[in-house]
# Entry
Amino acid sequence: MMDMYQENILDHAQNPRHWGKLEPHDLHAADDNPLCGDQLEVTFRVDENNIITDIGWGGQGCAISQAAASMIGEELVGKPLDEVKQISKDDILELLGIPISMSRIKCALLSLKVIKAAAYNIERWSDDE
Amino acid sequence: MNETQTTFDVEAIRADFPILDQDVHPGKKLVFLDSAASSQKPIQVIEAMNYYYRHTHANVHRGVYQLSEKATDAFEQARDKVQHFINAGSRKEVIFTSNTTGSMNLLVQTWGRSNLNAGDVVILSEMEHHANIVPWQILAQEKGFTIRYIPVRDDYTLDMEVFAELLKAGSVKAVSVAHVSNVLGTVNPLADIIKLAHDASAIVIVDGAQSVPHMKVDMQALDVDFFAFSSHKMCGPTGIGVLYGKRDLLEKMPPFMGGGDMIRRVTLDGSTWNDLPYKFEAGTPAIAEGIGIGAAVDYLTGIGMEGIHTHEQALGEYAHERLSEVPGLTLYNPDSPHRSGVATFTLDPVHPHDLAQVLDYEGIAVRAGHHCAMPLHQERLKVAATVRASFYLYTTRQEIDKLVEALYIAKGLFN
# Structure
């Protein structure tokens, strides 16, 4: 019944992985959904080959936004920045593995905006469609 | 015309609303607690609009033929119904608009544009809906007047002391406030506000979107200068609203939209304007919607606004009683009697969006977010979002019980 709030989602939301802003860090980005108050910021450490060696999240928000951040964060350590730049909306939705209604898409994709902005070393990722 | 009922029969009323009889998910009946966003429609309103399209429709104010006269009569009768519903002095003072937002924009762009300049002050409040903030901000960019805000106190009422000071500081041309806050449910002391504003030679504009559906409003008794509300929040169709204005003020205002119907005479060199109310109603009106709002007035009058108000107040009391018992729940409403039938809250540790989602799984419709009142949330309450459950004539105590049950389910899931 509770399609969106399956155990693994709740687990990631309540015990998000890689939580805590990294100091020092090499890359940083932040974003929010003013409509609902989800906020996320991410810090990356990268090696000389631009491979992510560590990642640290900060922020607060709904379970969907937090779970998505936690789940995608787990995938990023060891990834080159160029690969992060290629991550798509569908990748995030597949990772979450739950049906996301239209009204919650922005929650699910907030973390994507933030990691892309960090990967491109820009302040904020602008919305496509 | 129905006689006003003396006993309030909520089950009989619910039977008039076909939409309420559905399951949102298997085994989860709809519990609609979002009437503040938009109300449901009784079959009487739906049928009135259907009948119009089946039997009466033609363009209004133009045709000599029977059908057009019938349509015009029906539309103008609806206007008369609205006039009497709010006790306006004349039908010339009842302008049909698209909704409250349309009314506010009309007012700001006509009265505002011709009366406000740099050095003038307009007073709003921290609890206002965007429809009573943004149009003013847009005009202020152009005309250079100052907007000041009456603060909201910790008890969620307006700070009348600061209001008095703002008036005393001078240069105030207009005060524009909500009758009832769409977030807090606060019922503002209009009589006092209007007296103080008029003493300071300022006009008063009221956003009545959340009051007209729920209580009797009287333009004569209030002596308010302008009053705006929407049909769709009072059991009527979407797409139509009302701007009430005192006749002498409306006469002095330039038109808003230009086109057919609002003119007396058009030449290549220029045009003259039609009488009130048509001066402010350009183009073919939302005729069926006018019929609809008229039918809504009939329906509500038939039940009686007193009875509706009493019913909602009781629900509000009950809701607050039950919600106060839920651990971790914070309410953002004033104490009665300054409060309409609404409960606005956050539930620790569940994010409002997640809460609304879980409630939806239980068939319950509430609103989560900032409810088109970002300044209230972000700058005053300092929360990004709240959950709002709003009650109307078809809401039952059992529905409030279901709401509370679902809150415990959400708490269980997120702990």
Observations:
- Chain B touches chain A through 17 residues (CB under 8 Å).
- The mean pLDDT of chain B is 96.
- Chain B is about 40% helix and 15% strand.
